[in-house]
Amino acid sequence: MSSDPHHHHADDHGHHAHGHDHDGQELPSPTALRVKALESLLVEKGLVDPAAIDALIDIYENKIGPRHGARVVARAWSDPAYKAKLLADGSTAIAEVDFPGSQRAHMVVVENTPSVHNLVVCTLCSCYPTQVLGLPPVWYKSSAYRSRAVIDPRGVLRDFGLVLDEGVAVRVWDSTAELRYLVLPERPAGTEGMDEDALTALVSRDSMIGTAKVAAP
Question: Of 122, 175, 204, 207, which residue is the catalytic one?
Answer without folding.
Answer: 122
